Amino acid sequence: MIDTGFILKQFVSFFVEPYGIVLTLFTLALFALFRANYSRAKLFFTSALLLLLLFSYKPFAMFLVTNLEESYSKFEDRNSSIDYIHVLGNGHTTDMMQPLSSKLSNAGTKRVLEGVLIAKAHPEAKLVFTGHKGKTEIANAQMNANLAMALGIPKNQLIINGKPKDTKEEALFLASFTKPSQRVVLVTSATHMPRAMRLFEKEGLHPVAAPTAYYKESIESYLSAPKPYYLFLTQVAWHEYLGMVWEKLKGAFS
Questions:
Q1: Would the pTM count as exceeding 0.85?
Q2: Which domains can be identified in the chain, with CATH numbers?
């Protein structure tokens, strides 16, 4: 069954994120050029170029990323008892030509590794994996669980749900079977952690953050040249800020 709401959200979000903004402005510049509206063409083209340079500029990308990643410290409480370790989903491929270690996204692999490390220190805890299949035939939750089992986590320690399509649905799933008194550790990318914690707390959960997959780097010089990698990091951080704004807007109108 097609989830039109989810598809619509993905479609709209593209046009308000860096890639979509720049591409839209370049398209408008081209359209204005064909209409011989040269003043508008210059305006759109210049705006697109300047934004592309800004989004690809390391200090700008690091500013956005660092503000998110420094919200929570790394997980170091290895002694207290834990009931659940929830590892949030990320991207993957099912290409049979690739080994399991390569089938998960870089961030996804780090999330699983952090979850496994905590699970090995706390064998009493259940390791929860969530995440839908996207455009593949296997759920991301199952792919992550496969890696966890390959790293020595027994199957009876796992809880796997491949239905949640976003962080809110992942939070709803965990809230459906946990109690307020139970201790939950939430594992996700450091950039995603602030938004994830808000969504989980909104469902009455109070997880302990275990951020991983950090992107922040030191800035050696403010005269650095723009690079595609920093455009990617701007995109990652921008997506999180938009998500937080969207949740606040929904809360204001609900």
A1: yes
A2: 4-69+227-253 (no CATH), 84-212 (3.40.50.620)
